[in-house]
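Before going further, learn to read the protein records used in this course. The integers have meaning only within a learned vocabulary of local backbone shapes. The record below shows the convention in full.
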Amino acid sequence: MLDRPAAVPLIGSAVRLDPLADADAEPLFAAICFPEVFTGGYAGGPGARPDTVDGFRSMMDGYLRRGGENIVFTVRLIGGPDDGAVVGTTSLGHIDPANELLHLGWTAYAPAVWGTVVNAETKRLLIRHVFDAGYGRVHIQADSRNERSRRAIERLGAQFEGVLRRQQRRADGSWRDTAVYSILAAEWPGIELRLDERIAAAVRPVVLGEARA
């Protein structure tokens, strides 16, 4: 049977993923706790958005770490004037070694890096890490109403599998439909090549505060 993927730093050209540390609570709160991040359904939607660092620490322990089930990473920029800046978080969870599959999710980025290479390289680093560990399927999902997240998943090259109706309760008590995507190990070489081309085309470091499409 496979082992869980290792919780180790993953280093790219534009971002670095480090295992989540308690000290990351304050910079992550500053980076992602904006209404527009939660409007799309993150953590259960707007009603789940913490308004204090202590509230975010509770979210880290519950929603992100999930009692130690998830392997959680902090996303930092590499290079440029904002080198080392915390810009998001992402996780591996629902890890099923017997069936060689897991879920890549619980992802949120600072709005300042939306539309940049940050998501493409973050996903590239994580998916490569998962397949190198011997897994055969990576599952990615989003609130069916979150068109921005769904477009980002589709741009990765993930295959749309369908919509799970009334699948998860939102923080406000309503029910969400979940759009499900996946990438299989056999599909990964071609997807990775296209992601590498996207990443290489971002010829300079990501700079916070610059306007993005």
User: Anything to note?
Assistant: The beta strands are 10-11, 15-19, 71-77, 86-96, 101-109, 137-143, 159-169, 175-184. The chain has a mean pLDDT of 95. Residues 101 and 137 are 5 Å apart (CA to CA).
